[in-house]
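Fill in residues.
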């Protein structure tokens, strides 16, 4: 997933995310808060991070709560509407200003 849509969908569902650190992913995921970013790109390292997280129910609960709140705040319907409204407002100011 190069655009991170699945990351935002998972976070919106309250799922902690483990993802390979990539250009768009590092902008979406807060390592250690909403999930885990994996460095380097290694299947062994990725699997170890997933297994460790699955064994830590406290951290899983924290990541779930933070992920859902982050997704709602940044990508929920209210946030999306505010961004769209901001674009319309800017366009209106350019044409009428």
């Amino acid at each position: 997933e190069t655009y991170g849509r699945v990351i935002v969908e998972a976070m919106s569902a309250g799922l902690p995310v483990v993802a390979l650190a990539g250009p768009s992913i590092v902008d979406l995921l807060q390592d250690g808060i909403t999930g885990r970013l994996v460095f380097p790109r290694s299947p062994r390292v990725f699997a170890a991070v997933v297994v460790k997280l699955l064994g830590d129910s406290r951290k899983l609960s924290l990541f779930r709560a933070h992920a859902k709140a982050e997704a709602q705040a940044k990508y929920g319907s209210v946030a999306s509407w505010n961004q769209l409204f901001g674009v319309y407002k800017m366009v209106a100011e350019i044409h009428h200003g």
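The longest strand covers residues 17-20.
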